[in-house]
Write a structure and sequence with these properties.
Blueprint lengths: L1 H23 L11 H4 L6 E6 L2 E7 L4 E9 L4 E7 L7 E8 L5 E8 L7 E3 L5 E2 L6 E5 L2 E9 L6 E9 L13 E8 L5 E3 L1 H35 L6 H31 L4 H22 L9 H29 L4 H32 L7
Antiparallel strand pairs: 1-2, 2-3, 3-10, 4-5, 4-11, 5-6, 6-7, 8-10, 9-10, 11-12, 12-13
Length: 375
């Protein structure tokens, strides 16, 4: 029921934005007057339509105080404006406004310390809000208005700005992931803008690539290669070539996932110590498995059984920690339901297949009354 309600809220929110975007092509949002409740403290402002239905009204005083009124079409959820040093979300400070479920307006400053919900910290940030006028948020004629004043140490000219909106109403000041966003450079002296599309889209595309590569390499191919090695040995030597080939491809794809992860970390500088540490550990285990292929003793060697133990248990540890790290990564990234359901379904299929094949294997071994074969 909750998921259906969220889907409906998202649908109606996006519909409102889409309809208003069409109307905005023929009507400049700056033509409309501010609501009376805001106009008294926020008058004489410059105005610019900056993104879709987002209209930015602004002015700057001699003491470097920025007066801001951000407005856009509103149905539900939250709307935010962030100030960034490099056009990125992480490290920026944002003013976010919304109407609560009971109709109570909320406007808060958030410190965007990372991309997880716990790292979006309320009532913190680098914006020095003016004491002359309290931040205000209100909804009037299907538009939301966020009004605030922030003082800066020097005159603000070209500034990296973030705009975003989400369809879910925050609960306990916890923001859910945005439905859409943009990063741009806004010049408060001329009113000109330039979209920072590369800065805003590149990390997200890289994040998706990192996740997809990790899931396919470490989470799909590697388990399949292990299943073949354990349960398909009757088809000798086909099982061996399939096992080696699949695991080699899995390692290459997994390595690409690590490279993408390093690039993503260097771009975002987020605090993901556990995920990063596990990723390095899994890569080391994968390298050891590749090296073990070239150091494999002959079948009749007295060291072969020790190599078998090593190869099997390092492989199992690799698969276990890879699954843990994939789940951790999905949670850290705030990935949507398709990612969670997709990997959950894949993992379930692999586990059920392994259990069934293991039962059949032990049944076959018990009938033959011989020791199970080893690698």
């Amino acid at each position: 029921m909750g998921d259906n309600a969220s889907s409906l809220l998202f649908f109606f929110s996006v519909t409102f934005f889409a309809i208003a975007a069409v109307n905005a092509q023929g009507t400049d949002g700056c033509d409309s007057d501010l609501p009376v409740a805001i106009a008294g403290n926020y008058s004489g402002l410059n105005c610019r339509t900056v993104w879709n239905t987002f209209v930015l009204r602004y002015s700057q005083s001699k003491d470097h105080t920025l007066t801001i009124v951000l407005s856009t079409v509103y149905a539900t959820g939250w709307v935010g404006m962030g100030f960034s040093k490099d056009g990125m979300m992480v490290g920026s400070s944002a003013m976010v406004g919304w109407m609560g479920k009971t109709g109570v307006p909320h406007i808060k400053q958030f410190s965007l310390q990372g991309q997880t919900r716990s790292q979006v910290v309320v009532n913190e940030g680098n914006l020095l809000l003016s004491s002359d006028s309290e931040p205000t948020v209100m909804v009037d004629q299907a538009k939301i208005y966020l009004a605030f004043k922030a003082k800066f140490p020097e005159r603000v000219t070209r500034q990296q700005i973030l705009f975003a909106f989400g369809a879910s109403i925050p609960v306990d000041n916890k923001l859910k992931i945005h439905e859409d966003k943009i990063s741009m450079a806004f010049d408060f002296s001329t009113g000109s803008t330039s979209s920072s599309s590369s800065a805003s889209t590149y990390p997200y595309n890289l994040k998706r690539s990192h996740g997809a590569l990790a899931i396919f390499g470490w989470g799909v191919l590697a388990p399949i290669g292990s299943i073949i090695a354990r349960y398909c040995r009757r088809w000798d030597p086909l099982w061996f070539y399939l096992h080696v080939g699949i695991q080699f491809v899995a390692f290459i794809i997994g390595l690409a996932a690590v490279v993408a992860g390093v690039a993503l970390y260097n771009k975002l500088h987020v605090n993901v110590a556990a995920h990063r540490g596990l990723g390095i550990f899994i890569l080391v285990l994968g390298i050891l498995q590749v090296l073990s292929f070239f150091l494999r003793p002959d079948q009749d060697s007295k060291y072969r059984k020790y190599w078998n133990w090593y190869h099997q248990w390092v492989g199992r540890l690799t698969l276990f920690f890879a699954a843990v790290n994939i789940v951790l990564g999905i949670n850290l990234a705030g990935a949507g339901m398709p990612w969670r359901v997709g990997y959950g379904f894949t993992l379930s299929v692999l586990l059920i297949t392994t259990i069934v094949l293991e039962i059949l294997l032990w049944t076959r071994w018990s009938r033959k009354t011989v020791d199970p074969p080893t690698f």
